[in-house]
Design brief:
Blueprint lengths: L6 H13 L13 H7 L24 H10 L4 H10 L5 H4 L7 E2 L5 E5 L4 H6 L5 H12 L9 E5 L13 H18 L3 E5 L1 H8 L4 H4 L4 E3 L2 E6 L2 H6 L4 H16 L3
Parallel strand pairs: 2-3, 2-4, 4-6
Antiparallel strand pairs: 1-3, 5-6
Helix pairs in contact: 3-8, 8-9
Length: about 260
Amino acid sequence: MESALDYWSAKALLEWQVELGATEALCEAPVNRYELEAAAPKVKEAQKPGMPPPAPPKPKPVDPVAEARKVAKSAPALPSLRQALADFRHCDLKMGARNLVFSDGQPGARVMVIGEAPGRDEDQQGKPFVGRAGQMLDRMLAAIDLSREQNVYITNVLPWRPPQNRDPLAEEIAVMVPFLERHVELAQPDILVLMGNISCQAVLGKRGISRLRGQWDQAWGKPVIPMFHPAYLLRQPEQKRAAWADLLELKARLGAPN
């Protein structure tokens, strides 16, 4: 049996090995250092003095359309839907508009008119279809014994005026469609009247009002008839004959048994 080294002998051997260039002590058995690195816990690097704190993780981007669906579906009645629109933060149009333009007329009426977007007069008054276009619409409705005061409900695809009355962008329409669909569900009309191209794009997914007008379609469980927008008829009075034919189609449908 080997005798243990005394202190001085061990010290002398260690100093001799250091002089020879030894820098590490080895065990009697080999060590797999790759396994040691894999098993070692990761230690967060300590923050150095004077360095700014690490940035918090970035929030996940919000899908405006998905958020609109969730918010609109949760509205149990028209007043709460209006408030949900007023509180909605994912449509930049509201930043430049004076007023939210929600609706006019009689909720629960058999006819629901859907316009495109508010103009200057609508933005100032907070009601859809006012000014010259609104007066034209009132005359059109009166010609077949309808009125917003008695038996018509009116809204727009967009509740806020686009800058300079430009056409709404596709993404702006898309984020407002869930609110419009819920609006129709809560108002419960028998017939939808789509005034202009933007309304047809939002409700039917189609454009080309000259081709679509006067042709019955279906959307959201309702019969739908597209018509020329009153503002267009003010610019193109020769199209009033076609608009009159469409109004007669609407009147005949209202007179038919449900």
